[in-house]
């Protein structure tokens, strides 16, 4: 197709010659056969139509002449897919010569005197964009896919697999989807805050339907893009309404927490959480750090099944944490990504959050249905803000909607309907609880088997019982970066570099192999 710029040079695409044979045949025979090819060889012309036709060429070119030449000789130019159109080349020679002369500095290059028009250089505007590192968690799955070994195991991402190591779609999810088909639901936009039935169901599941905060209308619930999107929405809210506040994050924590607050430009610092000496909770350290933080900070807490350590505070410890938070006028911010997955009971796993709500504290809770309903790719979750008055809740909700609108406008409906159908239907709800217990039970069995195999095989007498005290999907093995690399490079066991393995991605049959890999990495790699 002829571009407007091409037309302005007086030629239609692809060239004046091919478009008008008369012009071609009007050139004397000798000239056609000998002179034109000779001229072309001499000029060694490579031409990128786009470059040539760019009106702001010199301005838009940030690189020096030398760099251009270098990148041209490195083959970037032709790789970038420039089209060399015979007729256009000839027709645009005068333009390119002018452009070259403008941009080329005086040179004593050995080619000087020979007009070398390497104007096919189509250097991307993205030359300065550097390669991003792979994501520490999702990048592991990419590496796993590329491995051709039969032995490979993906224990990186926290995603539930069956004993056959296949992804699992819950029966209740299939039934809920069937209901949706039967009802012939439409695909209209949802309101910015999401599906009403979902928002009601999700808040009730978290706080308990009879919770006074819900009864009094003090909870602002907004459906969002799973746990991550909900955290991000809240982070944007904090950035706008609490510009001087810091978020305290446990050390260690889920790899994406820091990214989320960094991206929202919310400053954060860490509080002690994990004690490698006891392979348990550094409770005193945690309290000290939360106390030492400036008043009115946000304290990010994992509602249950702390990721990556699998170590949760006891109910008594939760109470003491709440005391300090209250004393310091901090704002608790719960991330609940594993409700039902830690203990197998939805209520038990929500008890930390409920302890804080019962005290009348204002707080944030981000929820996710990726794990407990296996809706990883549906991106279904919510941000809940418990306020001290219904009026505050209404205003907070209006601002969350205001933030969501330019970000993603409104959330997807499919996952929201699944959750609403499952939670809203007593028989599906019961079936879900059974399925969740099954999933949590399978992980517990795998955990036990890994411990048994490690204890059997490790003759050094090392105590591996910490694996049994950890809960949830993961085990924090204590393997360091180099040892984790050995697990992957030698044993084809894919895991995050902080030593975390997802037991949800392991089968009973593979536990022995995993134990051998752990023992080899632990004792033979420093
Ligand atoms: N919070 C925590 C603590 C968490 O582990 C995850 C996911 C999320 C939130 C967000 O999940 P979402 O799918 O956005 O609802 N963790 C697993 C997956 C991931 O990293 O994205 C993981 O740690 O493997």
From TrEMBL:
Aminotransferase class I/classII large domain mapped to chain residues: 152-518
Keyword annotations from UniProtKB, A to Z: Aminotransferase, Pyridoxal phosphate, Transferase
Top EC class, one word: transferase
E.C. code: 2.6.1.1
Superkingdom classification of source: Eukaryota
GO molecular function: L-aspartate:2-oxoglutarate aminotransferase activity; pyridoxal phosphate binding
Transferase listed as a keyword: yes
Cofactor section: pyridoxal 5'-phosphate
GO term, biological process aspect, one: amino acid metabolic process
One Pfam match: Aminotran_1_2
Annotated catalysed reactions: L-aspartate + 2-oxoglutarate = oxaloacetate + L-glutamate
UniProt similarity note: Belongs to the class-I pyridoxal-phosphate-dependent aminotransferase family.
Subunit structure: Homodimer.
NCBIfam families named among the record's database cross-references: PRK09257.1 (NF006719)
Alphabetical list of PANTHER family matching this protein: ASPARTATE AMINOTRANSFERASE, ASPARTATE AMINOTRANSFERASE, CYTOPLASMIC
Protein name: aspartate transaminase
Organism, scientific name: Platanthera zijinensis
